Structures are given as structure tokens and as C-alpha cells.
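> example.struct
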């Protein structure tokens, strides 16, 4: 019984000594992806908007790169807004499956961006679409992968 009590006390002491780094995803200290959605989420809609959030942390971001999934095409461009809904000045170029967003001024840490890909055309069946997203940070030469923005569509 004493061994069980000592083991429990030791486990509790170790677990309480480990610091909690982030209470929510927006508390993270690195740039990361946030919420994502299709508007509307009906796979039959021909020109939907696929959107996801990017929370800029650490160093400022000068570019975002988005690679579309196979069978998905962005036909009406990409718009970038901040959390207040204000448009962020940027140049967008789409070359096949890869879109590059170059910001007029680097986006400072602490900024939440909403990336809205407009006029998205999919094959029309329900699926989970994965957009590969990476960022170019100020003062860095290489792109940093941020992960996959996951967009779900459903059959209406």
C-alpha cells in the first residue's frame, strides 16, 4: 500500500512540475493554422468559398503559400482579412495548384488572418479537402510548413 501511495505522490509531483505552455491554440508562440470551413459546405455548390485562419506568432510573415488538393480549382481569387474584417493588402498569384500571397507589408505577430479562397470548384462529391500551407517569415530564407488546412464538404 505504501508503494502505491509513494507512486501516486511521485506521479502527482512530476505532473505538477511540468509547465503548461498554451491554454488554447491561439496562445501558441509559433505561427499556426486555426479554424477552417467551406461556405456553403454543400459539395454540389459550384463556386463555394473555402476559408481558414492563420495566427501569426514569433516573427512577422511576409508570404503565405497554399497548395490546393487534386481536383480543386480556385477560380475567383483569394482575399485576406484580419480579425476585424479589414482587408489586408497583398498580391495573390495562382499558378496551377500553388497560390502565393505576398503581403504589401509584413504581417506582425499577434495578428489573426482569415484566408478566403473564392470560387472554389470541386468534383461535386463530399470529401475532406487538405490544403498544404506554408509561410515565409521575415529574416528567414526557407518556407516554414504550417500544416494542412482541412475543409469538409458534405452531400446536400
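> example.seq
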Amino acid at each position: 500500500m505504501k508503494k502505491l501511495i509513494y507512486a501516486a505522490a511521485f506521479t502527482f509531483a512530476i505532473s505538477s512540475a511540468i509547465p503548461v505552455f498554451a491554454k488554447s491554440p491561439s496562445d501558441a508562440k509559433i505561427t499556426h493554422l486555426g479554424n477552417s470551413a467551406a461556405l456553403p459546405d454543400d459539395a454540389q455548390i459550384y463556386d463555394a468559398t473555402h476559408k481558414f485562419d492563420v495566427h501569426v506568432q514569433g516573427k512577422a510573415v511576409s508570404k503565405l503559400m497554399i497548395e490546393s488538393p487534386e481536383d480543386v480549382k480556385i477560380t475567383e481569387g483569394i482575399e485576406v482579412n484580419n480579425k476585424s474584417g479589414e482587408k489586408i493588402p497583398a498580391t495573390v498569384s495562382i499558378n496551377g495548384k500553388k497560390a502565393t500571397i505576398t503581403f504589401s507589408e509584413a504581417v506582425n505577430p499577434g495578428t489573426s488572418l482569415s484566408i478566403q479562397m473564392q470560387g472554389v470548384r470541386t468534383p461535386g462529391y463530399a470529401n475532406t479537402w487538405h490544403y498544404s500551407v506554408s509561410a515565409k517569415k521575415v529574416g528567414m530564407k526557407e518556407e516554414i510548413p504550417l500544416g494542412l488546412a482541412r475543409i469538409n464538404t458534405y452531400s446536400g
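> remarks
The longest strand covers residues 127-137.
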